[in-house]
């Protein structure tokens, strides 16, 4: 730029002449020497100008100066009702900044830019209010700015001409001006610290989270932040209508109201806004093409601030922020004051009475509101409106990896700004009291004791050190004898600034712990104020428009929008991705799913993992999805237990979709239901001697889903400490595998239906032949498993699934090699006890005729060609004599000397049910008992009705309950009639009550009822108690005892 002088020395010489003149793109600017220090002042420099045709909208560029601009006026203020005098004054020609430059600098100096507070309604950056002399003497440049306030700065409408946040956009223009021009004044444009106090601190945090470019390198956030009371309001098109009406012009046309208001004296507009008590806050803007925006999302929903990563921050509060307000109100209106009623702003009406009582008793017990409990009332009002919300900003900064220094200002002295002004002598530091130890003000000029100036010297030194070095105590000195440590999420270090400096960890930790619980219970969390899951009111359009109810949840993954269910009082969040398959290695570990950039519309649960359905290969590898079903009663204030469903299907088919796992019968019992997909067949269970395909990927997918649920279900109103995992068949074996695995425990209870990890054929060893066989079937023959795998990675998914099916490859759980990320490295049946199961409540059982579907509809000739006893024993590789003895014993036990025929199909059904389901289930029950499970409930499902799933699917008219038949009395399914007959309805009601009681209480029958007249006993050490679920239910001990004892003996003699 031709106007810039290249040599810093020449620059500084010109700055520090008696009448300092600076060349800028707008022309020459002449400053004045300060009379209270060795620095020059450039006062009232215009950085933008308000558009006279649209004073509530975007500011315009400043024209070039026609002559030397005399920067000697520091009294310009934006229209406002002044805090001290209560006079209404100011001009719209107020978008100016003030620059204070030390005279003796030899190098470019760090820059501190100050944004004043005042609720965005009053305040200014001039030297009479924020004199810089105590800071400038430390060798830094100080810049303070004005920005529009009240309706001129913060009117927020649904029109492009007044889109909102103009005061913040003014600040942005000032920051751009400083960034582009401060080097002309001797400043370092790469060392700019943005500093705000009160609503100025709110502004600073808004800049940290806005989408605008980063115009500074560090920040100081003092007694404010985006979580504080009144920080954000909604767009409101009624504001100009109200102002115009109050001033005598009635209209319902926003544009006509604005046209009228622009012609009214600014004093009258401010007076009207004051009279109408119109608040000035930032807002969430509506996007318009060609209009520069500032804030498009609710700041409290933003969990990570990318701009703050590695950014030095200095953040703090005073120890009695609301001292002045509480003292003044108690003094003036002791009978009418009740600060606890402010809770109404956030707490729903139906919970207000209880919330009010809890908070009031926490702070003042049963004492009446009076001067006697003033300190406690100050604590409450401060916590609710400043200190706890400010602490949430600190937590978010730390999660965003900022380098953060935290402070608490506690000093009470002769320069405490507000207390001096109001002549208050009680202890504690009120809101803005710390400002008197940073800046000179006209009311404090020359005031203060030696102790006061020691605090002042310390604070200005630390603040200036931070501006210069990003560290307030780069070295220990006599003045600063303590090294100020940075805060972390684990240890929230802070510096207490009082007569002496001292260090602490987590200020007001007991009060903040209370507010953590309060917000979670009554509001949902500070980051979700008024976001009642799942029916969140989204304000769309003008205030005269319609309010739309949408189930919307803010999770660690991002915002997720669901649907209202049509078949019950619940919300559905369908097809949420919890992980993604690695395209480069679809048989290996899944990858994390990126965070949502925009709202994820969870409307579709149709994705299933690749599998064969109705003789056709269906599905996609983009299938690692889960579905969350939330009753309307659930919220982050009213957390409910969670039931996670893992489907069965032999690890080759199945899904968590509503077609097969509709939740409506469970949801009505006020539990959250989550259903998941996981990879199947070769993509989920290929197990190789290769670190890239270790095996059990389907189970590892389930683990990723369970972690996602553990980390996010609270945002849906779920209780992370009450998660029950429920599996049937292969899903049940999966649940047991999770209990046996080395992974962390991600659930608290378990339901295992018709499946055990002891079941034959479920577990296998590493098998490198699987990829060779599948690739050969697809036309690529090799003896190298890696080459076969590379071929299969590129092959069409449907062809791979079809090939595995055609050649009869059945894959399942496997024992992996020891490696990072392994799930099972020891055969689960060899693990004698399961530490994770200790003290876990478990409900498990089987159906009376599990394998009925294998035989019932088979023709007579089928039985002439089978020998299930031989098929079973062939798996064990027994020596001939043992094989013959075992075969003879087993066959005789079940069918005697009869030949295998259609006449023995019921006996064969009992045999295969015993070896594949019933006896393995009993072995699991025994091991759970030995592992310390005290509350274990066992059932046998024996009911025959019109919702027996497998029999409906297979058109079987037989009596008895087959494998998966019970699921029709738990879930709603497309294959089953929507109309339930009375007989079936009783079983359905009982089953869903048992299951959800267990989810909620760890006990399926916490009390006897007309529906549940029998108390279900737990399994005892000396009695295998169980509940028979049928039309006429009963409890007994040791079902099919003779068959189970028989298998104990067989195992002992032959199958060890």
From TrEMBL:
Keywords: Disulfide bond, Glycoprotein, Hydrolase, Serine esterase, Signal. GO terms for molecular function: carboxylic ester hydrolase activity. It comes from the Eukaryota. Residues 19-515, 550-1047 form the Carboxylesterase type B domain. Residues 1-17 form the signal peptide. It holds the Pfam family COesterase. InterPro entries: AB_hydrolase_fold, CarbesteraseB, Carboxylesterase_B_AS. Coiled coil: none annotated. The keyword Transferase does not apply. PANTHER family: CARBOXYLIC ESTER HYDROLASE. Belongs to the type-B carboxylesterase/lipase family. This is Carboxylesterase type B domain-containing protein.
